[in-house]
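ZP: hey, is the iron/sulfur cluster complex queued? I don't see it on the tracker
AM: it wasn't, my bad. submitting now with these inputs:
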Amino acid sequence: MNTNPSEATAPAYNRSRQAREAETLLDRIQDDFPDNPQAMRYFYDLFRRVYCQGEPVKHEGTLVGTTCIHAPEELIYAFGATPVRLCNGSYHYDQIGADFMPAKSCPLVKATLGSLHAKAAVPDTKSLELIVNPTTCDQKTKASAMIEAMGYRVHDLELPPAKESEEARLYWQRSVRRLALRLRELTGRKLTRNNLRQAMARTARAQTAFRTLHQLRKSAPALFLGKDAFLVTNAYFFDDLDRWTAAVERLNAELQLRQMEGFQAAQKRAPRILFTGSPPIFPNLKLPLLIEEAGGVVVADETCSANRMLYDMTAVDEWLLNDMVDGLADRYLKPCTCPIFTRNDDRQRRLLQLAADFHVDGVVYQAFAGCQVYEMEYRSIADVLAAQGIPMLYVETDYSPDDMGQLSTRIEAFLESIKTRKRNAR
Ligand code: SF4
Ligand code: SF4
């Protein structure tokens, strides 16, 4: 029951600024492009119901917020709880976060803390019983105490700054076991081989569906646009796991049909773009959308709101509880290519592999203003790509719509230069 007078007079959610941002974006995604797949309707409707109308997403058991892909979600599901990823892409909440965070903070962290501070209805912050905050970059690490001061329960999931050494691996495995203990305290349930195995099977099915979608995007000409791919993976943050998986399976079936029929979602010569860097998070899909509005097509990405979140699967040698937890911990450390780690040659290798597999013509690198690690890694990535003759556009941006005009001009010029290269190479 709502007894708080300030809440009673608060505007309805569907008139909130976040709802308007979401609506504007969804209108562009749906109306500015012909031939959207029928199966995308599930995702368009889901975002409209949840983000524009404020419809609550039903969840099973305790709701546990996570602030980064390093929080092992299978463990949360195994305790009968439901994870929801709190990383936020709203400019409205970014501005709220700016009121109490340093001006040069990353917009992702500002918006996430802004939404928690405002006790946002979407995501449903009032139902959160715990927030798992992996100690990744400095800003996320420092966020724990601030979130706690807002009245939330926070678990610091301690992540090592390196991922190569055995010491780091053991440190991380212990951290994941500590998280299991905290979840046991929270839910009053026991972790068993059976419930962990079931949770792993559910996420493995979701990952398999994602991998099929990923493979289908190799098709040239493209069958599917990146703006829709990011919407699908952003839905994974909050949607029911099994419903999301079934919707992606339906989308895959439709794309397979498109493939057989020789369908083209973009022009044959549309520049094929690989997207990397700071993650596009709904409703801030500004950059992927600008690329596709300018005639490019985002065919693959290396970001933690899509590929990095879903591609790598857990490998378990022995189906004994401790081995399963260790296998799970490994999956959340080793393959991650986030620049928070001391050495990150893996990211260079992965980008080159994706560029080759998806016949990429160019790379767009998004660095959020205030994110030092992505900014610092830019040079090494640029050098590796240049050595292979792959052009890259580096874009420093934030959640504000103010730079759209300038970004659009730069993207158009980049795509034009790719087209000229392709013409000259013929
Ligand atoms: S950018 Fe890195 S630290 Fe930040 S949410 Fe993504 S994976 Fe986590
Ligand atoms: S974009 Fe950078 S600063 Fe922001 S959460 Fe990711 S690593 Fe941290």
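AM: back. Strands lie at 63-66, 82-85, 128-134, 154-157, 272-277, 297-302, 362-368, 392-397.
ZP: great, adding it to the tracker
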